[in-house]
Amino acid sequence: MNKEINIAILGFGVVGGGVAELVEKNSSLLGKRLGRKINIKYILDLRSFPDSPFADRITASFDDIINDKDIDIVAEAMGGSHPAYEFSKECLSRGISVITSNKEVVANFGPELLRVARENGARYLFEASVGGGIPCLRPFGVSFAVNRITSVDGILNGTTNYILSEMTQNGSEFSKVLRRAQELGYAEKDPTDDIEAIDASRKIVILCALAFGVMPKASDVQRTGITKITPDILTAASELGCKVKLVAHASVDGEKLCLKVEPAFVSKKCLLSSVDGVFNAVSVTSDALDEVLLCGKGAGRYPTASAMVADILEAGLRKDEQLNVHEIRENDMPCASLDEFSGRWVVLFEGNEEESFAELFGDSKIKLIPSIGLVAVLTEEKLRGEVSRLVREQGAVCHGIFEYK
Questions:
Q1: Helix 198-212 vs helix 103-119: angle between axes, to the nearest 10 degrees?
Q2: 132 close to 186: Cβ distance less than 8 angstroms
Q3: How many angstroms separate the CA atoms of 195 and 164, rounded?
Q4: Strand pairing partners for 247?
Q5: Residue 355 CB-density burial (10 A; 0-12 exposed, 13-18 middle, 19+ buried)
Q6: Among 31, 46, 265, 362, who pairs with 242 as Cys (CB 3.0-4.6 Å)?
Q7: Cα angle vertex 299, ends 298, 300, to 5°?
Q8: CA 32 from centre of chain
Q9: How far apart are CA 85 and CA 207, in angstroms?
Q10: Annotated active-site positions, please?
Q11: Sign of the CA dihedral 27, 33, 36, 42?
Q12: Peptide bond preceding 83 in cis form (omega within 30 of 0)
C-alpha cells in the first residue's frame, strides 16, 4: 500500500481552493483517520497563482494528471458539463476515483459515470453536489437504506431562499432584494439558474435518483421560479400562517415520477418553514422514520469543500465499496404533468367578497384579505388540473396557484 494518497484538484476557484486549504489545514487529522497522508500532487487551472502556497502544484495540462500512475483520487470542482464530464470519465476509466461538487455533470451523466466507476474499481462520489456541506446524500445509502422512501422535499437553493426571506421580513420588491443578494455574493451576475429554479431542478433529480433508483433529466422537472413573487403574495401567505418557499419535490405515484420545483405556501407547522436565509434543507419522508429534516449551509467555499474532503476520505478508506443504492439507472419511468399532482392548493384571486367564490369552491377555506384586495382560497385535496379548471370557470383575475404544505 502506498504511504500517501495522491490527489489532484480540477479547478482552483472558490471550491477547489477551499478543498486544497482544508486538506492542508486538517492534514494531521485526515492522516490519522486514513492511516495515510493525503498529498495534493496537482491542481489543474489555466491561470497561474504565483503567490499561492500551492503554486508549485499548479498545472494547465490535464495530461500531467491522467498520465501519472500515482494519482489515486481526483476532486473535480470545475463547474459546467464540459470538459468536467470528459475528464471525470477518463479518470474513472483508469480506476481513479472522482469526487465532485458539480451538480450539472451528476444530473446529466450520473448513471453513466457510476457505471464506469463500478467497472473499473473506482468510486464516483458527489455529496457536495446537493446542499453544500449538509450530509444529505450519504444517508440514502446508510440510514435511509432500510426504509421505503415515499417523498423528498427540499429548499435547495440558498440564493432564492435568501431573497424570499428578505422579501418576507422587510416587504421589499423582488428586484431590490436580488440586487442586494448580488452585492453580498449570494447571487451571480447572471442569476438565471437560481431564480428560474434551474439549479434546484438539477439537485432534485440527484435526490430522486438516490431515493428511487432512477435518474430523470432536469428538463423532466416541472419548474417555476420566483420572479413573479410579489409582496402581496407574501402577505397572503402570512395571513394563512405560511411562508413562501421555493420547494423542490420528488415522489413516485403509481408508475409515474412526480418532479417539480415551484414556490409553495409552507405552513409554519411544517419543518421546512423554519429554514430561512441562505440555508438549505432536505426533508425525507419514509415508512419507518416518517419525516427527517437535514439542514445547514447549502453553499460557500468551506461548507462545499468540507463535503468534498469527506468524500475524499470515504474514497480513500473504501475505494472498491460502491454502495448498491448508487446503482442508478437511466430513467425509464414517465413523468407526471403538473395537472396530475395531487395536494391542497392556495389560489389567490382579486376580489373583496368571499361569497362570490363559495359556489365553485364550497369545500374550501375562503379568506378575504382586504389590505391587499385579494381573496385566498385554500382547497381540500385535489388534482392540480381540477383546480386550474375551477380557476378558469371562476373567471376572476388569478395571482397564482400554490401548493399548501
A1: 30
A2: no
A3: 11
A4: 262
A5: exposed
A6: 265
A7: 145
A8: 32
A9: 20
A10: 203
A11: negative
A12: yes
DSSP string, 198-227: HHHHHHHHHHHHHHHSEE--GGGSEE--ST
As given in the structure block, the three cell numbers for residue 225 are 421560479
- The cell numbers describing 200, all together, are 434546484
Read off the amino acid at residue 68.
Answer: D
How far are the Cα atoms of 10, 43, 132, 312, 317 from residue 30, in angstroms, in the given order?
20, 19, 20, 10, 11
All three cell numbers of 342: 395531487
Nearest of 184, 125, 192 to residue 157 by alpha carbon: 192
Residue in the block written with cell 480513500: 316
The single-letter code of the amino acid at 177 is: V
Q: How far apart are CA 216 and CA 13, in angstroms?
A: 29
Neighbours of 231 (CB within 10 A): 15
pLDDT at 318: 81
The neighbour count for residue 233, using CB atoms within 10 Å, is: 22
> 372: which 3 cell numbers?
391587499
What pLDDT is attached to residue 320? 63
Q: How many CB atoms lie within 10 A of CB 269?
A: 9
Q: What is the mean pLDDT of each run of 10 residues along the chain (405 residues)?
A: 87 97 96 94 96 97 98 96 98 97 96 93 95 92 88 97 97 96 93 98 97 94 98 97 98 95 97 95 94 91 95 88 66 95 98 91 94 97 98 96 98
Amino acid of residue 134 = I
Answer for the pair 103, 122: CB distance below 8 angstroms, yes or no: no
Q: Phi then psi for 253, rounded to 5 degrees?
A: -120, 100
Tell me which DSSP letter residue 354 carries: S
CA-to-CA dists, residue 102 to 32, 206, 304, angstroms:
28, 11, 11
